[in-house]
Amino acid sequence: xxxxxxxxxxxxxxxxxxxxxxxxxxxxxxxxxxxxxxxxxxxxxxxxxxxxxxxxxxxxxxxxxxxxxxxxxxxxxxxxxxxxxxxxxxxxxxxxxxxxxxxxxxxxxxxxxxxxxxxxxxxxxxxxxxxxxxxxxxxxxxxxxxxxxxxxxxxxxxxxxxxxxxxxxxxxxxxxxxxxxxxxxxxxxxxxxxxxxxxxxxxxxxxxxxxxxxxxxxxxxxxxxxxxxxxxxxxxxxxxxxxxxxxxxxxxxxxxxxxxxxxxxxxxxxxxxxxxxxxxxxxxxxxxxxxxxxxxxxxxxxxxxxxxxxxxxxxxxxxxxxxxxxxxxxxxxxxxxxxxxxxxxxxxxxxxxxxxxxxxxxxxxxxxxxxxxxxxxxxxxxxxxxxxxxxxxxxxxxxxxxxxxxxxxxxxxxxxxxxxxxxxxxxxxxxxxxxxxxxxxxxxxxxxxxxxxxxxxxxxxxxxxxxxxx
Length: 470
Description:
Low-confidence stretches: 1-50
CATH superfamily of the largest domain: Tetratricopeptide repeat domain
Shape: globular
CATH architecture of the largest domain: Alpha Horseshoe
Number of strands: 0
CATH class of the largest domain: Mainly Alpha
Radius of gyration: 22 Å
Distance between the termini: 66 Å
Strand content: under 5%
Order of helices and strands: HHHHHHHHHHHHHHHHHHHHHHH
Structural class: mainly alpha
Mean pLDDT: 89
């Protein structure tokens, strides 16, 4: 029997033929530091050995980040148990959930096939309608950036157990990737009603508030989450999320403090190390920034980090060093796609600025048809701008920045993209406004694009006092 088929739940996404963009790809999806996994196990399998493995199991079954050393112990424990008890469906479920969490923490695409095999084996030898396993399959789909599949698995799990707050949490990520902002709001409301006081719930709420442009509310929720978190890995994840929010607001020093505190709390928090590089670059401490990025990439090979480091090199005139990072991005993307991940977004972003913009448009248009999130709208709009299709580019740039379409986040890069597109169309008033707003929100949003925004704004000059604004 093929364990990938089921009459009860949807099957996995079929891989699309790969376009000749670059031999590459992968993006890291950062989901606010919270991975929704199995909330409990009631099968016949004995619990893992007490100690660190048990702590990791408690984390992954409680919807919070787990420490990497503890995860390794848990995985080893479950693998040994399953060699002796291969029909223990709940043990397979825990193993699959642990693989997902480990892959999320390390950006190791090789974890995805192992996780899928373990979770589907759990469905085959255990309960075919187990909401815990279905929820973990939804979390795996989120990590692969397959949001339609994540929605199907998550909604299947929710039908079986409507009061599982962790299922609502993973569905928030799925709906966000699909651009369904009304569904995001409903899932957030239900999750908060079920477990309003949990730090993990507060952190998920902060991510939604950030996307809505409610930055003060997001900051308050994250502050609560950090204060209430008990395990170091969990606290560090929320500190990293707070650092990202601070950086997006242009607070370089505050972001650096958050990122460094996250690293002190959990030295394996490599997303915080990449954030440290981002903040140091904005502070002009470029040698330290490059060292931080290299350290992050050594332990968490995320293509977005390689793209950021390559662009930092370019901003310093180090073209050969930039090419090294872009070649690394291609290898990382290729590995992720071979493991079943959808990496069209990061490929499109890369190609638009550093490769074949036409190929980026082709890839991102297909991505928009499949999962029309705000991130895809922004990337597609910029790729269209790069190919000279300015009117169509403005349509997507508006979606990414207009609250009517869900693009309410105060994102400096998105506003820069819109302003440059309006400038190309001769709409100088809106162009000035959006370029200026991008630089007010975060004057350091990109080592390449922030200087370009300042140059464009200077070239536009001040509006004429003689002619009325358009």
